[in-house]
# Entry
Amino acid sequence: MKYAFNTWAYSHFPCWVPSYSFEETIERLARIGYDGVEIGCAQPQAWPYYTDKERRRDMRRNLEDNQIAVASVLPAPGGGPGGNIASACEQERAWTVQYWKDCIDLGLEIGDCKRLLCVCGWYIYGTKSRDAWKWAVEGISNVADYAAKSGVVLMLEPTAADSNLVESCEDAINMMEDVGKENVKLMFDTTHALYRNEVPSDYVYLMGENLKHIHMADYDRKAPGTGGCDFVDIMRALKEIHYDGYVTMENGFPTRDCHPDVVARQSLEYLKKIEEAL
# Structure
């Protein structure tokens, strides 16, 4: 299997500190032994609107020098612009669609990345879930058409702990089917399955051949093996469905007292031991 680590733990999202530059983050993950990095498209590393052509060339060289691939790119939901593909605000939806497209371009330019992770949005008080669902389908379809021109795959994530539209495995499958595009597939994060008191390995089997990405984190976004989740079962399930994507850690960022290097190292060592034993 290939292993990647998400940059949130090294960035301003969602906690402001500790934070590190793109170069420092990549060099640290390379020393720990990761194959790839999942780039959160936010400061201080990769906000698309602060990275011009020259900066992107520098980022590509840094990745190549450290032999780190870009496993995927992840637009940051929330914040000032909203970033909600299902918003009742038409301007916010339009901004989000363009932001996702700009994240696709960033991933291609710095690392030939063909995978975009998608939080399918949320609806606020006074709006209807069915309307938000329709807006999400429209926005995701728009981005999918743009992505298809470059061979980029969109991966829809159920996010129960953070949102209220696509919360479950079934929700994600339904959204994928309603969008109905060949380059729209699925992913999931163990954190959100655990939030629903569900068994993460069930998501692996239910998503099956449409599962193209996974986020690994123990309870409270801790390193796998430190909080009580059954990662042996998850890794076995991935092996049984012949999963060939990245095993990506999205953890170590709930509070400023997390040490990202420690979380990154613990996560990689623990899951590799499980893989070797299976």
